[in-house]
């Protein structure tokens, strides 16, 4: 802007062969230019609004290269087109980086925050940042503790009921165990299983680990845990762990539970290398999310099933709430969503097997 003013001043002070401007006229012209520049600046840098007058929403994703979150991000950004300016950051699975990103967004004058936490235990820190800036915050997909959500009247959550994934995995495996001949390969009446767990201490991971086993036991199925280790939601780690377990336990393993599809995909790779899914050699593997890659494996008979965590619904619900609160409206104004008991919107989970693959396919389009 200073350069612009200087150029104007230079032009107005250049000698004119026909007539020279008086100092008064030149001063008036420079003053008018400065006023115009100031007006333009106020329009361009209006706090919380983009150059198109759209509200700015500061958004962080715990890591962009997470298979599932990439689809949530796609749905979220699509919902925002023409309505809001989304400032989007990859936290690279680093909570301190995410905290810094929140500070940057606050300094840029965003009107709302949408946060996919790296560490759910850090919710309190982000809530305090939002509270001090008097900003609304929507947490999504990774659920903070209930007391954290309720501690701030401008805080909400969008996700699925954490226990539901594990419950439906348990239902799926119970159906398999009770109806498929040869499911009990060693005929001992006990289901021997291995568990690929997500992030330790993560609410979703804990419940996806305990709930399927609780359901099996409630249905009278005896179970034996052969292995339980964290694969940190990662395909490569899931593959490495499965290779280790196959070397140790061989055909004693009768089922593989994975807290998400990414780890399930890795497990299937290890199983295929060990000769499974060829001829009559089969291993039931269950995951969570409904990723397109998992749907392809279910079609091929290389996964028993998954539990759909609808990324389109999650992305759209997160944006709808963030967009409303960014405008000072009620979070649910004009939406199809409803709140539960803790200012939460819950996206429905659904068992996906070879019988209803179309539902998962539609969710990931």
Detailed description of the structure:
- The protein has 365 residues and is an alpha/beta fold.
- The protein folds into 3 domains: 2-44; 56-159 and 312-347, Rossmann fold (3-Layer(aba) Sandwich), CATH 3.40.50.2300; 163-309, Rossmann fold (3-Layer(aba) Sandwich), CATH 3.40.50.2300.
- The protein is 46% helix and 17% strand.
- It has 13 helices and 12 strands.
- It has a 6-stranded parallel beta sheet with strand order 2-1-3-4-5-11, with helices on both faces.
- Helix 8 links the parallel strand 6 (190-197) and strand 7 (222-230).
- Helix 3 packs across helix 12 (311-326) and helix 7 (162-179) packs parallel to helix 8 (203-218).
- The longest helix is centred in the N-terminal third of the chain and has 22 residues, at 23-44.
- The model is unreliable at 1-25 and 30-51 (pLDDT under 50).
Please tell me how large the radius of gyration is: 27 Å
Total number of beta strands: 12
Q: Going by CATH, what is the homologous superfamily of the largest domain?
A: Response regulator
* Overall residue-averaged pLDDT value: 89
Query: Helical content, roughly?
Result: 40-55%
- Strand ordering within the main sheet: 2-1-3-4-5-11
- Shape verdict: elongated
Poorly predicted spans: 1-25, 30-51
CATH architecture of the largest domain: 3-Layer(aba) Sandwich
Q: Report the top-level CATH class of the largest domain.
A: Alpha Beta
């Amino acid at each position: 802007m200073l350069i612009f003013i200087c150029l104007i001043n230079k032009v107005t002070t250049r000698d004119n062969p026909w007539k020279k401007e008086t100092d008064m006229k030149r001063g008036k012209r420079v003053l008018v230019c400065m006023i115009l520049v100031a007006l333009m600046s106020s329009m361009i840098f209006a706090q919380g609004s983009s150059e198109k007058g759209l509200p700015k929403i500061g958004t962080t994703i715990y890591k962009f290269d997470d298979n599932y979150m990439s689809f949530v991000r796609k749905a979220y950004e699509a919902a925002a087109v023409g309505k809001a300016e989304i400032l989007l950051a990859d936290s690279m699975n680093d909570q301190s980086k995410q905290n810094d990103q929140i500070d940057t967004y606050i300094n840029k004058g965003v009107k709302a925050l949408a946060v996919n936490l790296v560490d759910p235990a850090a919710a309190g820190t982000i809530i305090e940042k939002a509270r001090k800036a008097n900003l609304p915050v929507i947490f999504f997909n990774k659920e903070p503790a209930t007391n954290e959500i309720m501690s701030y009247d401008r805080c909400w959550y969008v996700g699925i009921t954490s226990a539901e994934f594990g419950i439906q995995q348990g239902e799926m495996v119970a159906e398999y165990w009770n109806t498929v001949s040869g499911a009990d390969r060693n005929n001992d009446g006990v289901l021997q299983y291995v568990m690929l767990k997500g992030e330790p201490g993560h609410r979703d991971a804990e419940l996806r680990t305990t709930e399927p086993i609780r359901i099996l036991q409630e249905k009278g199925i005896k179970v034996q845990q052969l292995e339980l280790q964290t694969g940190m939601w990662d395909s490569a780690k899931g593959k490495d762990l499965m290779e280790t377990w196959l070397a140790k336990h061989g055909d004693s393993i009768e089922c593989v539970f994975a807290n998400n599809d990414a780890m399930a995909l890795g497990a299937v790779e290890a199983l295929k290398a060990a000769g499974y899914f060829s001829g009559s050699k089969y291993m039931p593997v269950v995951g969570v999310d409904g990723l397109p890659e998992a749907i392809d494996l279910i079609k091929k008979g290389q996964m028993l099933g998954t539990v759909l965590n609808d990324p389109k619904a999650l992305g759209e619900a997160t944006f709808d709430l963030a967009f409303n609160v960014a405008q000072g409206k009620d979070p649910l104004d004009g939406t199809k969503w409803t709140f539960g008991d803790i200012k939460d919107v819950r996206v429905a989970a659904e068992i996906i097997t070879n019988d209803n693959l179309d539902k998962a396919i539609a969710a990931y389009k």
